[in-house]
């Protein structure tokens, strides 16, 4: 049998070197095949190495790319400087403006303290002294009013808030009627003198206010004592109270004057309304209890609450709260037809906002612990 021909390492015939065919001896063909395979492997390995070097060389940035990156970095830094420089100028200008305002203000600054040798340190001191309204001692208080007998009348808002320390004794004692209608949420009126209730006519009678002795003649005022004045739809449903100046009780016929049935000696009255949105929990606090507290807390319980459109369940529900605002029984303005007499009365409630108590707007200027409670 003929032995099979030996190919070059089981490769196809074309891989044999040129000129080596089956006529050559077997050993020569085998040796030639081994040498050719070794050369082939070395050739392919060298080619793979060259390919790797080419790939690595392509991954590194070229000199052109390096120069482009350097240019981009320089542009980025220059752009940052262009943006930062205007911001720095604005900051310096703002700081300079604040310092200039602080140094030119007549009031002492918390962060700029003028030196003792400063030429303007005495002038702000005089301005601050001129703004002071509190007199340290009673002696100085009397001396000031002796030197200035013609003090201007106090605004109605000051009388409502109890800020009457600067008023002359004659102004503090005269009968008057005034109203503060500057607030968008509520109107308030103030009556002083011989103040009497007349529930049958929904009126508050102020005897002596029509005698013509006061600087400003008193006129009849009408008010709906509810803290949503801007809400005309609901305000229209509130009972209107008339505050009527009257001649002195001694100067009128006895049948025309309303005799006192209940005298509240030395006690002011505070008239409010239980109408409107009373019954809604939110509005009971926002429109009622919180404004009542803001208006009545300065009396420290020495005030009589007069409630128009009173609802008995309101007293039952908020009795503990009302006991902290007044030491006296509540007066039902509509059902209690007796004549209640007071030395002064506030009609309406002061409000700072929705569920808000602003300590800077309180008569004493701050909140105490009892107010937080």
Number of helices: 10
Give average pLDDT, whole number.
74
- Which percent band covers the strand fraction? 5-15%
From the N-terminal CA to the C-terminal CA, the straight-line distance is 122 Å
Overall morphology = elongated
Could you tell me the radius of gyration in angstroms? 49 Å
Low-confidence stretches: 1-7, 9-14, 105-149, 368-373
Order of helices and strands: HHHHHHEEEEHEEEHEHEEH
Q: Supply the number of structural domains.
A: 3
Helical content (DSSP H or I, runs of 4+): 25-40%
The biggest sheet amounts to: 10 strands, mixed
Content-based structural category: alpha/beta
Q: Got a strand count?
A: 10
Protein name: UPF0114 domain containing protein
InterPro entries: Glycosyltransferase_61
GO molecular function: glycosyltransferase activity
Architecture overview:
With 373 residues, the protein is α/β, with parallel strands linked by helices. It folds into three domains: 8-59; 62-101; 158-372, no CATH class. The chain is built from ten helices and ten strands. Strands 1, 2, 3, 4, 5, 6, 7, 8, 9 and 10 form a ten-stranded mixed sheet that branches. It is elongated, with a radius of gyration of 49 Å. This is UPF0114 domain containing protein. One of its GO terms (molecular function) is glycosyltransferase activity.
Short description:
This is UPF0114 domain containing protein. It comes from Musa troglodytarum. Helix content is 38%, strand content 14%.
């Amino acid at each position: 049998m003929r032995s099979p021909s030996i190919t070059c390492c089981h490769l196809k015939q074309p891989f044999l070197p040129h000129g080596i065919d089956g006529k050559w001896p077997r050993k020569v063909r085998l040796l030639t095949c081994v040498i050719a395979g070794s050369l082939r492997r070395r050739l392919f390995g060298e080619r793979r190495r060259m390919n790797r070097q080419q790939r690595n060389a392509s991954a590194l940035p070229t000199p052109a790319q390096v120069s482009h990156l350097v240019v981009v970095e320089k542009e980025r830094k220059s752009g940052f400087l262009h943006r930062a420089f205007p911001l720095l100028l604005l900051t310096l200008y703002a700081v300079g403006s604040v310092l200039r305002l602080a140094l030119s203000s007549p009031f002492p600054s918390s962060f700029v303290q003028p030196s003792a040798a400063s030429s303007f340190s005495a002038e702000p001191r005089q301005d601050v002294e001129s703004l002071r309204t509190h007199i340290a001692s009673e002696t100085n208080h009397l001396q000031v009013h002796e030197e200035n007998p013609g003090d201007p009348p106090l605004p109605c808002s000051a009388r409502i808030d109890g800020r009457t320390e600067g008023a002359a004794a004659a102004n503090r004692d005269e009968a008057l009627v005034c109203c503060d209608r500057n607030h968008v949420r509520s109107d308030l009126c103030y009556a002083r003198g011989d103040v009497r209730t007349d529930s049958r006519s929904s009126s508050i009678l102020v005897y002596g206010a029509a005698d013509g002795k006061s600087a400003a003649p008193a006129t009849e005022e009408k008010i709906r004592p509810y803290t949503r004045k801007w809400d005309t739809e609901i305000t229209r449903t509130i009972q209107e109270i008339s505050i009527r100046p009257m001649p002195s009780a001694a100067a009128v016929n006895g049948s025309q004057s309303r005799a006192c049935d209940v005298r509240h000696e030395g006690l002011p009255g505070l008239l409010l309304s239980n109408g409107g949105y009373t019954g809604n929990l939110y509005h009971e606090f926002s429109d009622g209890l919180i404004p009542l507290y803001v208006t009545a807390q300065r009396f420290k319980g020495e005030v009589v609450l007069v409630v128009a459109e009173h609802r008995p369940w309101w007293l039952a529900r908020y009795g503990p709260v009302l006991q902290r605002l007044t030491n006296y029984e509540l007066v039902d303005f509509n059902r209690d037809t007796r004549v209640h007499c007071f030395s002064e009365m506030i009609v309406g409630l002061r409000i700072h906002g929705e569920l808000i108590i602003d300590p800077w707007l309180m008569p004493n200027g701050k909140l105490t612990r009892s107010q937080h409670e």
